[in-house]
Design goal:
Strand content: 5-15%
Order of helices and strands: HHEHEHEEEHEHEEHEHEHHHHEEEHEEH
CATH architecture of the largest domain: Alpha-Beta Complex
CATH topology of the largest domain: Amidase signature (AS) enzymes
Structural class: alpha/beta
CATH class of the largest domain: Alpha Beta
Largest sheet: 11 strands, mixed
Helix content: 25-40%
CATH superfamily of the largest domain: Amidase signature (AS) domain
Shape: globular
Number of domains: 2
């Protein structure tokens, strides 16, 4: 039997039943990577010798009666996570020899759960793109169309899952970096509530692995089924033992409902600042139709929804000001010159991004105060609804575009070009207030490319969108191999 596209849940059941060993699963996964990854280029740092040793250890542990959540299951890890003895570069050539001595907290949790780490997956330079290419490791392609991006920055992980290279992966998300690759590659991903999952050891090199809380950014699970997402989130979730974990323990509430008919869902397929492509709109409507058919309460509009234009503006202000602080892209003099050329009444997203590059601390505090008002608005909305269904991006995966100036790139939506960064508004909708969001497959475009949607849930009620994802998987189907 071929195991490469089985879920982690199915693999665990087979391991427990003695139908397969971890060594056999690991050898099969490695053989598939060695055969198929020449074209995909998802696994940028293989760790096969240690993976085989870990698999032997898992089989020995199971033979003596141990049973852990992921014992013996092959997985991959995004390159940006520290793995002791392997390079962590974030795709940046000056750090090609940066080799941490300790595992990131999430890598430690994977190993403690018994997972077998096959290696690390490719990322864009500095994790700053919806593509996955860099000078060190080359370009990762989309398994559905090699001329298109698999997404970023967790694009290597999504491509690996779609190709059968391990049952699970872990990634990160600041600007859709979990959800966009899942949408482009036809797999599942979950952006947890901000602060739910510790991310120590996921830091730009050569910085120390400190337990620092970052604004907007999260780490989270990727899988080929919704149930596997929930399984991996249970392994990952919880405070850092060096900080909040000293006093706090995790107690996620259960999903609000167990049946589709009981869910109250707001469906969005239009944004005031950018068009929604026909293929993505069809995917959103497919999910909406399935919800209606199963008896869920579905609405298309609500006065409780926070203003989408202001939400996008706030997201861009927080995203760009934070990113530029970590990865400066312009001299202050050049920035002042460009900003001075903006009209006082220019409120476009492009102008918002440019102004955000020069944000002061006072500017950031003002934006953060407005964010708190949006969070309150979302709390009121989720008193009336259980989830929001909306696009992840306006289009399926786009052709590779390696123009280094992201601000000058364009994205074509049904033949009309828009600034590349404008399409981030959908990914930013749950990111700005820190809400959980689950990306799920929702069909194919006319060209055969995967199309996904995201299910946004109430803060710290991550099990609600995950349960909805599982029920939708049963209703409309889920992952299909390329």
């Amino acid at each position: 039997m071929e195991w490469s596209f089985q879920s982690a849940e199915e693999l665990t059941a087979a391991l427990r039943a003695g139908e397969v060993t971890s060594v056999e699963l690991t050898d099969e996964a490695i053989a598939r990577i060695e055969r198929d990854d020449r074209m995909v280029n998802a696994i940028c740092v293989p760790d096969f010798d240690r993976a085989r040793a870990a698999a032997r250890g898992a089989d020995t542990a199971r033979a003596r009666g141990e049973d852990r959540p992921l014992l013996g299951v092959p997985v991959t890890v995004k390159e940006s996570y520290d793995v002791a003895g392997l390079p962590t570069t974030w795709g940046m050539p000056p750090h090609r020899n940066h080799i941490p001595a300790e595992d990131a907290v999430q890598v430690s949790r994977l190993k403690a759960a018994g997972a077998v780490v096959l290696g690390k997956t490719n990322v864009p330079l500095g994790l700053q793109d919806w593509q996955s290419f860099n000078e060190l490791y080359g370009t990762t392609t989309n398994p559905w169309d090699r001329d298109r991006t698999p997404g970023g920055s967790s694009g290597g992980s999504a491509a690996a899952l779609a190709s059968g290279f391990g049952a699970l992966s872990i990634g990160s998300d600041l600007a859709g970096s979990l959800r966009v690759p899942a949408h482009y590659c036809g797999v599942y991903a979950h952006k947890p509530t901000l602060g739910l999952v510790a991310h120590r050891g996921m830091v730009p090199p050569p910085g120390p692995a400190l337990p620092v809380d970052l604004d907007l950014a999260v780490v989270g699970p990727m899988a080929r089924t919704a149930r596997d997402l929930a399984l991996l989130l249970d392994v990952m979730a919880g405070p850092d033992p060096l900080t909040l974990g000293v006093a706090y323990r995790l107690a996620l509430p259960p999903a609000r409902h167990e049946r589709l008919r009981d869910f109250r869902v707001l469906v969005l397929d239009e944004h005031p600042l950018i068009a929604t492509g026909s293929a993505v709109r069809a995917g959103v409507n497919r999910v909406a139709d399935a919800l209606v058919a199963d008896g869920a309460r579905v609405e298309r509009h609500s006065p409780l929804l926070p203003d989408l234009t202001e939400a996008a503006t706030l997201y861009m202000q927080l995203l760009i000001s934070g990113s530029v602080a970590r990865f400066p892209t312009e001299s202050q003099e050049r920035l002042r010159t460009r900003t001075a050329g903006l009209g006082a009444d220019d409120r476009s997203l492009g102008a918002t991004r440019l102004r955000a590059m020069g944000f002061s601390h006072r500017d950031w505090i003002e934006a953060n105060d407005r964010r708190e008002l949006h969070r309150h608005g979302w709390r009121r909305l989720f008193a009336e609804f259980d989830a929001v269904v909306c696009p992840v991006t306006p289009t399926p995966a786009f052709p590779h575009d390696h123009d280094p100036d992201l601000l000058e790139r364009r994205i074509a939506i049904d033949g009309v070009e828009y600034p590349f960064f404008d399409q981030f508004v959908w990914a930013g909708l749950p990111t700005m207030p820190g809400l959980p969001a689950t990306a799920v497959p929702a069909g194919r475009s006319p060209e055969g490319l995967p199309v996904g949607v995201q299910l946004i849930g109430p803060m710290f009620e991550d099990r609600t969108p995950l349960r909805l994802a599982e029920l939708l998987e049963r209703s409309i189907g889920g992952f299909q191999a390329p």
